[in-house]
């Protein structure tokens, strides 16, 4: 197939043709609506407009959630019901290590990101070259997890002691006369190393959110505190931090969700070897290598349930925001 | 103005900007230097890996095998061979093409359907609109993994697997809750009188959408667009699963992930391919930073 | 260029009635002003006429056609909003052209009409600007222009001048009036400003709580208010009210206030003898001195140059007087005042309705 000709064709089709059709369909629907009396017209119009967006969401998100929950109680080929066996499997044996790793991700990734982002946001605020520093910190947010994994594979690269180190970190260790660390091989260290890649990739989001929150804290209040003789630590902990707590929560929940879903980094850098496996990667394995739909679904449901508290927090926040 | 200054400053290396302009840090001297030192450390840590990628992609094979990327600084010896190899042997051009063919339509469709949905949700009165809004907020955090088992089967059933429109469909549906969420606040802030005025001027609902809503929402649509493009371009999981069995070159992320596993081509071409893959999003974020920042801040569920 | 008839119109939001039984007949080319306290339903009524709100009950007609079920876009009504609602992404010319384009009017004709209206409103030099590049007064003009260029059947204005400064407001007021005279387009205009209402209207509709209290020409409204609410609402400073009885005196009938002040009555008040009434007199209808004047104690004098406003105490009641004369007397002193018997209003104390 001639890809060079196909790409423009697909782009024209998807970015011009389909939008045009969507618009046409709306026009058609409106034309039909205009034949109705005003009452029903008003009642039906929202549904005409929501038909396509909601339909897509229902197809891609809602329907699969329901089916997956059902499949998680079925056997490997999703043919017969087997009760909670998949869940028993998910919380036993080798899976416990995988879940342990996920818990490591769930705790360490959000906390490290938050702490580093807080430091960055507060300190960037104090220097004149803040825009430049900010730009550099958000650059990695543009990079795919895959590319980030490639980049950091090189940073973590390890040669046995004695030979010249090509990885940046081990080279630095060598300069200080320390032995090289097998960053991606040594258990626990490797999971931490993977987590740091995610921190590097995602911290820009956190810094942006926190920085904008910090700038919204009234300068007058802070100046008053300064005049009262409060030190910078004091100001941070008793003035700034309480005022940006909502944003801190946002950062935490965002990062928790990112940690739950993490797949690309593990898949590319270690493929779950050396005790780095996580749930999402395991799901990929169950789906493709083991072909066990029941196991895969149970894992997916566990992921979903872990995300539920965050969804709940979001909903509560949203409601208070919309209805002041 | 400050924006352009910011952009042009970035490609410079990570030194040479300390001491620019007036210093905002007050207080005692050593504390001041500590602040600068920590900020500098951040900047280094976040910039060096990208620099490393660029330099590695430009170094000759022999150099790469013998020494780390930093040796390119004292001993600059650059070549474009890695890039040629990447294009010739790694199908990078084809992969970039496939990625574009996925990301551009996805972006356009996400924007269009999000505006349509947000407009209906914010500007039309009907029972159930709060419920729908809440449902979308809840779906914001759905892990994509939950959808895989049924959708893979469905895609196989209807012949969508291995096709690019199948990926559009998935990515658009998955990104829509975010899109609607991001746009709804903005559209709600357009004064109601504007719509009423247009209606009295004789505009139909569709016309209002085209002539009032779309042009006025352009800034936030740009924000959504850049985020949607980044997600689509950077996505690995979905194309990895749903593009299997396609005769097209794999999207760039899938291609890269495969290349990491096999080391036959050596580090150089992989680095070149990786750099090419991050070039598009980096340029996008740098040139549209304002929109990108608005997208991130607007997309956070704030309290 | 059509008449508008509103018949037994009602509107409620949920169970809360906002418009209750409003009927108004507006003639072709008439300039009708809606006034009333905040929240009385003026905007709601206007928006119902425009088609922006649904009708709960009753009818709205343009000419002989009932338009309850005609969509706003098909009513051919132009509205000027308080916030102007200019399209921010269109130039002045594009703002005006929008409705014409939708009507399918050809380019040349559009340009001709825009140029003409631009000239009429002095917008010629601004046609290529965006709304954000205009001053408040200019924006107001553009909003007017956008309405005029359509040559609609009916103009609706919802407090169009309230965002302008006082001087500009006076200017625009006479300009709008002159324009309407020229174009002869049926106009319904909502305002809070009494002077605006009095000077511009052919007829004024006074509303309260979703009902029409009175609908009359400005001078009739001033001279013969139908009830105490209208009497108090129209005129500034507001009419003075005193409670008391009509009593027989040696020479005829007089008003005897509760605290024993005797005030003259117009001829024909004899029929009310023995009835409790509310005695209404506008501040400007007190005279100074003369036969039968009463001593009133001055509480405060506010000279404005052309007139003098005096806050007085008449028996137990506070009243306000407005005099063309300069008043030399000071606080605490008394002056002789005399109500003009021919300008007296008598109201029923229970219903508030006008008796004479
Ligand atoms: N959408 C709505 N839902 C419920 N009540 C409404 C709505 N719109 C208006 N109201 C109520 O209807 C009444 C009339 O409102 P309206 O805006 O017509 O008043 P108005 O006379 O124009 O006041 P103002 O002079 O302040 O503009 C008010 O009490 C208002 O609270
Ligand atoms: Mg109003």
From TrEMBL, chain A:
InterPro entries: ABC_transporter_permease, MetI-like, MetI-like_sf. The chain crosses the membrane at residues 6-26, 47-66, 103-124, 131-152, 192-214, 235-260, 293-316. PANTHER family: ABC TRANSPORTER PERMEASE PROTEIN (PTHR30193), OSMOPROTECTIVE COMPOUNDS UPTAKE PERMEASE PROTEIN GGTC (PTHR30193:SF18). Keywords: Cell membrane, Membrane, Sugar transport, Transmembrane, Transmembrane helix, Transport. It is found in: Cell membrane. PROSITE patterns: ABC_TM1. GO terms for cellular component: plasma membrane. This is ABC-type sugar transport system, permease component. SUPFAM superfamilies: MetI-like. It is a multi-pass membrane protein. Residues 99-314 form the ABC transmembrane type-1 domain. Its main location: membrane. Belongs to the binding-protein-dependent transport system permease family. One of its GO terms (biological process) is transmembrane transport.
From TrEMBL, chain B:
Signal peptide: none annotated. The chain crosses the membrane at residues 33-55, 100-122, 134-155, 167-187, 208-233, 270-288. GO terms for biological process: transmembrane transport. Keywords: Cell membrane, Membrane, Sugar transport, Transmembrane, Transmembrane helix, Transport. Gene3D superfamilies: MetI-like. It comes from the Bacteria. The keyword Ribosomal protein does not apply. It holds the Pfam family BPD_transp_1. This is ABC-type sugar transport system, permease component. It comes from Rubellimicrobium thermophilum DSM 16684. The lineage of its organism: Bacteria, Pseudomonadati, Pseudomonadota, Alphaproteobacteria, Rhodobacterales.
TrEMBL record, chain C:
One of its GO terms (biological process) is carbohydrate transport. The keyword Transferase does not apply. GO terms for molecular function: ABC-type transporter activity; ATP binding; ATP hydrolysis activity. It comes from the Bacteria. Keywords: ATP-binding, Nucleotide-binding, Transport. SMART domains: AAA (SM00382). GO terms for cellular component: ATP-binding cassette (ABC) transporter complex, substrate-binding subunit-containing. CDD domains: ABC_MalK_N (cd03301). Pfam families: ABC_tran, OB_MalK. Residues 4-234 form the ABC transporter domain. Gene3D superfamilies: 2.40.50.100, Nucleic acid-binding proteins, P-loop containing nucleotide triphosphate hydrolases. InterPro entries: AAA+_ATPase (IPR003593), ABC_transporter-like_ATP-bd (IPR003439), ABC_transporter-like_CS (IPR017871), ABC_transpr_MalK-like (IPR015855), ABC_transpr_MalK/UgpC-like (IPR047641), Mo/tungstate-bd_C_term_dom (IPR008995), NA-bd_OB-fold (IPR012340), OB_MalK-like (IPR040582). PANTHER family: BLL2173 PROTEIN, MALTODEXTRIN IMPORT ATP-BINDING PROTEIN MSMX. Belongs to the ABC transporter superfamily. This is Carbohydrate ABC transporter ATP-binding protein. It comes from Rubellimicrobium thermophilum DSM 16684.
């Amino acid at each position: 197939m001639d890809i060079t000709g196909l790409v423009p064709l697909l782009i024209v089709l998807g970015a011009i043709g389909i939008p045009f059709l969507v618009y046409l369909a709306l026009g058609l629907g409106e034309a039909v609506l205009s034949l109705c009396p005003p009452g029903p017209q008003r009642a039906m119009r929202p549904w005409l407009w929501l038909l396509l967006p909601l339909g897509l969401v229902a197809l891609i998100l809602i329907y699969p959630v329901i089916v997956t929950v059902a499949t998680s109680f079925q056997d490997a080929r999703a043919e017969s019901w087997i009760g909670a066996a998949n869940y028993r499997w998910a919380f036993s044996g080798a899976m416990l290590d995988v879940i342990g790793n996920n818990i490591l991700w769930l705790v360490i990734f959000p906390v490290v990101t938050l702490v580093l982002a807080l430091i960055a946001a507060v300190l960037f605020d104090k220097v004149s070259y803040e825009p430049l520093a900010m730009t550099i910190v958000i650059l990695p947010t543009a990079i795919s997890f895959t590319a980030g994994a490639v980049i950091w594979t090189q940073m973590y690269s390890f040669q046995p002691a004695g030979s010249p180190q090509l990885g940046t970190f081990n080279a630095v260790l060598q300069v200080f006369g320390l032995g090289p660390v097998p960053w991606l091989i040594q258990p626990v260290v490797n999971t931490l190393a993977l987590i740091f890649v995610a921190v590097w990739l995602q911290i820009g989001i956190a810094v942006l959110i926190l920085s904008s929150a910090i700038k919204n804290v009234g300068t007058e209040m802070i100046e008053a505190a300064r005049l009262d003789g409060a030190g910078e630590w004091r100001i941070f902990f008793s003035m700034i931090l309480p005022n940006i707590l909502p944003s801190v929560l946002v950062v935490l929940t965002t990062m928790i969700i990112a940690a739950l879903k993490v797949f690309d980094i593990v898949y590319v850098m270690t493929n779950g070897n050396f005790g780095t496996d996580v749930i999402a990667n395991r799901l990929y394995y169950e789906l493709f290598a083991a072909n066990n739909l029941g196991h895969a679904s149970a894992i997916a449901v566990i992921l979903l349930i872990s995300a539920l508290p965050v969804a709940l927090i979001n909903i509560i926040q949203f409601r208070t925001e919309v209805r002041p | 103005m400050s924006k352009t200054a910011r952009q042009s400053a970035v490609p410079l290396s990570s030194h040479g900007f300390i001491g620019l302009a007036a210093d905002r840090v007050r207080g005692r001297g050593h504390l001041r230097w500590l602040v600068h030192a920590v900020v500098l450390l951040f900047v280094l840590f976040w910039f060096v890996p990208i620099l490393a990628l660029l330099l590695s992609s430009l170094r000759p094979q022999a150099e790469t095998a013998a020494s780390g990327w930093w040796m390119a600084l004292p001993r600059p010896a650059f070549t474009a061979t890695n890039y040629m190899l990447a294009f010739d042997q790694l199908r990078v051009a084809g992969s970039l093409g496939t990625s574009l063919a996925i990301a551009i339509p996805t972006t356009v469709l996400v924007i269009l359907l999000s505006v349509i949905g947000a407009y209906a949700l914010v500007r039309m009165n009907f029972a159930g609109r709060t419920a729908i809004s809440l449902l979308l907020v809840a779906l914001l955090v759905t892990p994509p993994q939950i959808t895989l088992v049924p959708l893979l089967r469905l895609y196989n059933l209807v012949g969508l697997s291995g096709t690019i429109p199948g990926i559009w469909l998935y990515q658009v549906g998955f990104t829509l809750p975010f899109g609607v969420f991001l746009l709804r606040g903005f559209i709600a802030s357009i004064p109601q009188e504007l719509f009423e005025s247009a209606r009295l001027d004789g505009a139909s609902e569709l016309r209002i959408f085209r002539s009032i809503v779309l042009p006025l929402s352009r800034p936030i649509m740009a924000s959504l667009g850049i985020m949607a493009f980044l997600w689509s371009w950077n996505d690995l999981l979905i194309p990895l699963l749903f593009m299997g069995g396609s005769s097209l070159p794999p999207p760039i992320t899938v291609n890269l992930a495969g290349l990491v596993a096999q080391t036959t081509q050596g580090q150089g071409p992989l680095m070149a391919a990786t750099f090419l893959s991050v070039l598009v999003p980096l340029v996008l974020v740098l040139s549209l930073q304002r929109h990108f920042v608005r997208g991130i801040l607007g997309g956070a569920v704030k309290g | 260029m059509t008449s508008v008839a509103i018949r037994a119109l009602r509107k409620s939001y949920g169970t809360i009635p906002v418009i209750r039984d409003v009927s108004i007949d507006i003639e072709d080319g008439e300039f009708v002003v809606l006034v009333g306290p905040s929240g009385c339903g003026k905007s709601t009524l206007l928006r119902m006429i425009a088609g922006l709100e649904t009708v709960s009950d009753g009818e709205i007609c343009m000419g002989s056609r009932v338009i309850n079920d005609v969509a706003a876009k098909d009513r051919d009504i132009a509205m000027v909003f308080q916030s102007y609602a200019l399209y921010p992404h269109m130039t002045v010319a594009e703002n005006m052209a929008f409705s014409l384009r939708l009507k399918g009017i050809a380019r040349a004709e559009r340009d001709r009409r825009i140029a003409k209206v631009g000239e009429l409103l002095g917008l010629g030099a601004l046609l290529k600007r965006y709304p954000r590049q205009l001053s408040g007064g200019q924006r107001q003009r553009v909003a007017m222009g956008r309405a005029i260029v359509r040559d609609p059947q009916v103009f609706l204005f919802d407090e169009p001048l309230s965002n302008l400064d006082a001087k500009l407001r006076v200017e625009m007021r006479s300009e709008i009036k002159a324009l309407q005279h020229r174009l002869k387009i049926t106009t319904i205009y909502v305002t809070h400003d009494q002077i605006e209402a009095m000077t511009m209207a052919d007829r004024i509709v006074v509303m309260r709580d979703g009902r029409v209290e009175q609908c009359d020409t400005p001078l009739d409204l001033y001279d013969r208010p139908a009830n105490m609410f209208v009497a108090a609402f129209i005129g500034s400073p507001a009419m003075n009210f005193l409670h008391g009885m009509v009593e027989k005196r040696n020479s005829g009938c007089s008003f005897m206030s509760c605290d024993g002040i005797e005030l003259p009555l117009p001829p024909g008040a004899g029929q009310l003898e023995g009835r409790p009434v509310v005695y209404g007199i506008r501040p400007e209808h007190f005279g100074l001195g003369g036969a039968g004047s009463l001593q009133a104690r001055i509480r405060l004098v506010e000279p404005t140059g052309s007139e003098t406003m005096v806050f007085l105490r008449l028996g137990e009641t506070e009243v306000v007087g407005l005099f063309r004369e300069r008043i030399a007397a000071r606080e605490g002193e008394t002056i002789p005042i005399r109500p003009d018997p021919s300008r007296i209003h008598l109201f029923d104390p229970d219903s508030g309705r006008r008796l004479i």
